[in-house]
Amino acid sequence: MNSKYLSLYGDIVSKIEEGTFPTNSKLPSESSFMEEYDISRDTVRKSLQLLEQNGYIHKIKGKGSFVLDFSKFNFPVAGLISYKEMVEKLNLHSKTIIHKLELETPDSNMAKLLDLTDDGKVWRVFRIRQINGKKIILDKDYFKSEFVSNLTKEICEDSIYGYIEKELGLQIGFSNKEITVEPCSEEDKQLLDIEDFDMVAVVKSTVHLIDGSLFQYSESRHRPDKFKFTDFARRTW
Q1: Are residues 119 and 188 in the same domain?
Q2: Which of 11, 32, 67 is the last residue of a domain?
């Protein structure tokens, strides 16, 4: 039984990668696979479940299984890299859309996250990242104004980190990250091309300068089929 469902899984993966089953196409029905491979419905379903777990297909109740774009973008977890640096490294066609750019007094929760005093202000910057024509990331950033005194639309469309390091002369040091999978919010649905997905991958970060000063809180919300988060780990003794 195991060899049968893995055999079907391998055949479908090969057909997806070679383009026989192209991106966004609907896979044949369970009954078709049962007849072609002379296997049970349970075996077919185990194969489809493994395909969905590994990001090759997306099952929609009542409609069938659809092929995803399996060429996901590597997003490093351990490194501290700007979005601009990432898209240049991966040679992606990208556009940044500024949704919000405001200097404001933060609410109590944000003030606590950024360890702000009562009179501290933050820049709130919401940017939609469009890659290959699809709006697939919502970046929500908050910068302490004591470190970043001014931001413009042009700076935010280009690279805030580049501006901080090259123009302000500050050295970005390290960050603490938390990665979760959360239900899509109404904001996600309105601003991103969510399609049939009901979950997003969320990376929450607090970012510090080289001297340890906390200057940024970031929440990056990703459509789950387009990104995989990567890390390199070495065992220490």
Answers
A1: yes
A2: 67
pLDDT tens track, the chain, 237 positions: 458 888 999 999 889 888 899 888 999 999 999 999 999 999 999 999 888 876 688 888 888 999 876 556 666 665 566 777 777 766 677 899 999 999 999 999 999 999 998 788 999 999 999 987 889 999 999 999 999 999 999 999 999 999 999 999 999 999 898 989 899 999 999 999 998 888 899 999 999 999 999 999 999 999 988 776 666 555 655
Q: Which two tokens stand for residue 6?
A: 């893995």
Calpha distance 108→112 (Å, rounded):
6
Q: Which of 56, 57, 200, 78 is nearest to 129 (CA)?
A: 200
pTM, two decimal places: 0.68
45, 67, 89 - which closes a domain: 67
In the numeric block, which tokens belong to residue 224?
Answer: 């789950």
Domains: count for the chain: 2
Tell me whether residue 235 is in a domain.
no
Domain hosting residue 128, numbered range = 73-230
